[in-house]
């Protein structure tokens, strides 16, 4: 049986890796790291288990935050909300959870489940439903496997909670998003309850280990006084899309999402060029000054501070910030027809077709690494 004990000492790397894989969204993992650190200090380490070690009939439950990442910077969760959501879902199902799951391997939702696992004593499964972060609730590998998001419970800091049963996962997103907006723009959620057999068929395995490895790489490179971008691209088959300074940023919280566009003026090898990134919580499309797409959803567009080498989220983007943008290939499940229907460019209203980041950038030969 593959088990790993996660201690408070591991949380820095996990939070950094989650921030990088969050592709600009998913909420600031620092908040979740603080929650997890307090829970681990009070209750001891979390056991990370392999999906193969879960029984077929065991109940597996993802726990996560839903809402605009910008809201979470000012509306910090107390920790009781997510416990209330899990407890009410278990009461409705008439069954206790056997193991917990991450819904996404990015941002705040890569660290919050560690806090819940420590508080409940439940193991956390090594895997998730995205392999990154996506903005909408139905955008998970569980949906592709026909697993219902409902029953779903949202809970807020005021003690309110909502139980949703919906006809499909898109309707769950619409209803839950409206409730999260009314709850102040963000809420804590327990949903997508599934059996161990369903979990193994639908999960993207190994991603909790991967985010820790990404974080460890970031920390090791920075300790060696090297920018971590090149090492991460080498390790995870990434592409250096561009480096530049933010010259304009448009960002609004609309309908429960942080939406906007950043314009970046190229520096170093990219001097004299201009680039842009569109985002809806997460970075969706990166383009150059000719309008050509350099990377597009579902592939990952990841930002690092070009000076300090730390991950940059959409809410941290600001005028004058020097950033380095890396493109990573998405999990193969997202490149299928079913995956592209859920998270491809057309879903977000773009008229360009999906093309793999490695195909685009090998052809353009823009990677100076």
What does this structure look like?
The protein has 369 residues and is an alpha+beta fold. Helix content is 32%, strand content 26%. It has helices at 11-21, 29-43, 69-72, 80-93, 112-120, 141-144, 169-182, 196-202, 207-223, 229-235, 337-343, 357-364, and strands at 3-6, 46-49, 59-67, 99-101, 124-125, 127-128, 152-155, 161-164, 186-190, 194-195, 204-205, 239-254, 257-266, 274-280, 282-287, 293-296, 300-305, 322-328. The strands form 4 sheets. A 7-stranded antiparallel β-sheet has the order 16-15-14-13-12-18-17. A hairpin with a 5-residue loop joins strand 7 (152-155) and strand 8 (161-164). Helix 1 (11-21) packs antiparallel against helix 2, helix 1 (11-21) packs across helix 9 (207-223) and helix 2 packs parallel to helix 5. The protein is globular, with a radius of gyration of 19 Å. It starts with a strand and ends in a 5-residue tail after the last helix. The model has no long low-confidence stretch (mean pLDDT 92).
Mean pLDDT: 92
Straight-line N-to-C gap = 40 Å
Write the element-wise H/E pattern from the N-terminal end onward: EHHEEHHEHEEHEEHEEHEHHEEEEEEEHH
What is the structural class?
alpha+beta
Q: State the helicity in percent bands.
A: 25-40%
Major β-sheet, in short? 7 strands, antiparallel
What characteristic shape results from the CA principal axes?
globular
* Cα Rg: 19 Å
Number of helical stretches of at least 4 residues? 12
């Amino acid at each position: 049986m593959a088990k790993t004990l996660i201690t408070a000492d591991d949380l820095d790397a996990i939070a950094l890796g989650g921030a990088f894989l969050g592709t600009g969204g998913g909420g600031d993992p620092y908040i979740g790291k603080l929650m997890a650190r307090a829970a681990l200090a009070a209750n001891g380490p979390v056991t990370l288990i392999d999906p193969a070690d879960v029984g077929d009939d065991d109940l597996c439950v993802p726990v996560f935050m839903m809402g605009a990442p910008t809201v979470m910077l000012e509306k910090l969760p107390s920790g009781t909300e997510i416990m209330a959501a899990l407890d009410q879902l278990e009461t409705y199902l008439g069954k206790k959870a056997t193991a917990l799951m991450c819904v996404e391997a990015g941002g705040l939702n890569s660290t919050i489940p560690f806090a819940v696992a420590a508080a409940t004593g439940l193991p956390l499964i090594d895997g998730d439903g995205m392999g990154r972060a996506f903005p909408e609730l139905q955008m998970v590998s569980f949906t592709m496997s026909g697993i219902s998001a409902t029953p779903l419970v949202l809970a807020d800091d005021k003690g309110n909670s909502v139980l949703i049963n919906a006809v499909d996962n898109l309707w769950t997103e619409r209803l839950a998003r409206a409730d999260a907006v009314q709850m102040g723009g963000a809420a804590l959620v327990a949903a997508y309850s599934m059996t161990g057999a369903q979990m193994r068929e639908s999960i993207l395995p190994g991603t909790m280990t991967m985010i820790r490895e990404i974080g460890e790489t970031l920390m090791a490179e920075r300790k060696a006084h090297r920018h971590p971008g090149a090492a991460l691209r080498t390790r995870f088959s990434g592409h250096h899309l561009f480096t530049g300074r933010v010259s304009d940023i448009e960002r609004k919280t609309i309908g429960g999402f942080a939406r906007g566009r950043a314009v970046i003026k190229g520096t170093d090898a990219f001097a004299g060029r201009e680039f842009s990134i569109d985002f809806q919580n997460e970075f969706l499309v990166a383009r150059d000054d000719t309008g050509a797409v350099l990377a597009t959803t579902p592939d990952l567009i990841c930002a690092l501070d070009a000076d300090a080498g730390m991950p940059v989220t959409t809410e941290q983007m600001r005028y004058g910030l020097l950033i380095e943008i890396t493109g990573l290939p998405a999990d193969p499940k997202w490149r299928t027809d079913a995956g592209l229907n859920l998270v491809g460019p057309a879903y977000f209203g773009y008229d360009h077709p999906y093309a793999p980041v490695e195909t685009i950038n090998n052809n353009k030969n823009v990677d100076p690494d």
